[in-house]
């Protein structure tokens, strides 16, 4: 369950991650739960077909029944018969800043989650354990937002143009210089949307005749960008260096299919922190492999920038490495910086190329100035350029809160995934019936949580995903932990037996001696 890795001199400190296997009876009951739900789903479909139950979901018109259906049948079946039963646990509207606490608009359903109506009641001061507000910059303090207010009054809310036309402002230039300085690279370019930073820029970097090696748990934005590029895509097991090296070796030896020509480029796509597993990329080993096989490395630091590293500079700093070791540094401002958008950073040649060829630069509206100012404000705070040590204190507080929260959950007997230093904390629920029960009972205790199930996770690994923030006080975390302790007993969620890893292929293969 607990894995400390030390591969030669690549790691300067112990690298500890948790992937515990659930008892066999849990897996059996999980499949049984889905089986029972499926049987009743077919029964209800039969009743709807014969008019014995009201059909709430949209149906194909009689004139179109011979057409190819718009959606896959199983997806429709899953949505109407399984997801709909627990739909009330998602898309809950909040009506305040998503800080350490938020206000929630109460809603109820009269038709088993097909529709909702608002009661007019506001649920106050719900402890927020779901937002990616890692450093607590999602805030409404008047003094903190003073500069943002000034920029709003000066520039307004929108640009109404793309970066290549009339959408490049002095605020964008200032922000890009600051990002480059913060990361320790030559240049950077910012974009108005984090998802599009991946999906619209990867196609500009690779194309036909190129090879993408992608981690199997990469975010959808990376997957979409890879598919849009037209490059050949091969998947390696999550954080598994043996799997990655085999693909690299085969790519060098055999080249492209049929022609056997050498690949034009080989690029490795990885994330800093994986948002569903809470695991941290094995960057030292990946960098060693990419140097050995002369590949490029694209690192998505959406969840890690600001959240890890002694001064919040992400996994590169966390492992004590140089930014020059990574060819393309990508990150978003939507999490640690309490704003929106993303960046690509690295060598000046790379950034200049993207300024000309990026689909986002050509077609997408520029980042609005108040958002740019919010990022500048947060980044200057992190760098100490505001004349305080508040940014450094936030980074340290996040680390303390993360380690405390994870340690207490382990002690209680829950199975949690990921690295000890990752503020993303997945708590395994497994059984489909417990997803809804867990989220509803936590809300009754004034705690807002995010629950995730199939198809976003493997069918047997439904989970609650907690996001720890520097803004959480010890009292808030203790309140959540006490509620989890009580609910863990009530719902029988304390499955931990400290068994060996459920991902043995990640940790138990013979260690490679990697070259620098």
UniProtKB/TrEMBL annotation:
Domain Aminotransferase class I/classII large: 124-484
EC number(s) reported in the record: 2.3.1.50
Main location, first listed in the record: endoplasmic reticulum
Location within or outside the cell: Endoplasmic reticulum membrane
One BP term from GO: ceramide biosynthetic process
Membrane topology qualifier: Single-pass membrane protein
Protein name: serine C-palmitoyltransferase
Organism: Chionis minor
């Amino acid at each position: 369950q607990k894995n400390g890795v030390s591969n030669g001199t690549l790691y300067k400190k112990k690298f500890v991650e948790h992937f515990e296997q659930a008892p066999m009876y849990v897996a059996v009951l999980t499949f049984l739960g889905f089986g029972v739900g499926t049987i009743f789903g077919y029964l209800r479909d039969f009743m709807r077909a014969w008019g014995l139950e009201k059909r709430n979901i949209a149906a194909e018109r009689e004139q179109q029944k011979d057409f190819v259906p718009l959606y896959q049948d199983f997806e429709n079946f899953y949505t109407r018969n399984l997801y709909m039963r627990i739909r009330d646990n998602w898309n809950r509207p909040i009506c305040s800043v998503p800080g350490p606490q938020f206000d929630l608009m109460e809603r109820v359903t009269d038709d088993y989650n097909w529709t909702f109506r608002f009661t007019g009641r506001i649920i106050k001061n719900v402890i927020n354990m779901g937002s990616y507000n890692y450093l607590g910059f999602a805030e409404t303090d008047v003094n903190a937002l003073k500069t943002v207010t000034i920029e709003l009054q000066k520039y307004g809310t929108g640009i109404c143009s793309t970066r290549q036309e009339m959408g490049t402002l002095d605020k964008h230039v200032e922000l890009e210089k600051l990002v480059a300085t913060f990361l320790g690279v030559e240049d950077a370019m910012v974009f108005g949307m984090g998802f599009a930073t991946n999906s619209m820029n990867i196609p500009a970097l690779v194309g036909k005749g190129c090879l993408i090696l992608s981690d199997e748990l990469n975010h959808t934005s990376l997957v979409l960008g890879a598919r849009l590029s037209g490059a050949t895509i091969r998947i390696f097991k999550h954080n598994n260096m043996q799997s990655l090296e085999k693909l690299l070796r085969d790519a060098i030896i055999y080249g492209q299919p049929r022609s056997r020509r050498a690949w034009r480029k080989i690029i490795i796509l990885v994330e800093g922190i994986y948002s569903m597993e809470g695991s941290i990329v094995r960057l030292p080993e990946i960098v060693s492999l990419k140097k050995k096989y002369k590949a490029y490395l694209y690192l998505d630091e959406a969840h890690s920038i600001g959240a890890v590293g002694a001064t919040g500079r992400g996994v590169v700093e966390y492992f004590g490495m140089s930014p020059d070791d990574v060819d393309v540094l990508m990150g978003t401002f939507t999490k640690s910086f309490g704003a929106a958008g993303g960046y690509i950073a690295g060598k000046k040649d790379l950034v200049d190329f993207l300024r000309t060829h990026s689909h986002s630069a050509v077609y997408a509206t520029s980042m609005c100035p108040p958002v740019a100012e919010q990022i500048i404000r947060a980044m200057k705070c992190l760098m100490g350029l505001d004349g305080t040590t508040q940014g450094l204190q936030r980074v340290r507080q996040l680390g303390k809160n993360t380690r405390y929260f994870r340690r207490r959950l382990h002690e209680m007997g829950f199975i949690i995934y990921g690295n000890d230093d990752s503020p993303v904390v997945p708590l395994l629920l497994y059984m489909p019936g417990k997803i809804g029960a867990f989220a509803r009972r936590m809300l009754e205790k004034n705690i807002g949580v995010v629950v995730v199930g199939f198809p976003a996770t493997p069918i047997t690994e439904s989970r609650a995903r907690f996001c720890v923030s520097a803004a959480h006080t010890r009292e808030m975390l203790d309140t959540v932990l006490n509620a989890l302790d009580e609910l863990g007993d009530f719902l029988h969620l304390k499955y931990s037996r400290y068994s060996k890893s459920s991902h043995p292929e990640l940790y138990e293969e013979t260690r490679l001696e990697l070259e620098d």
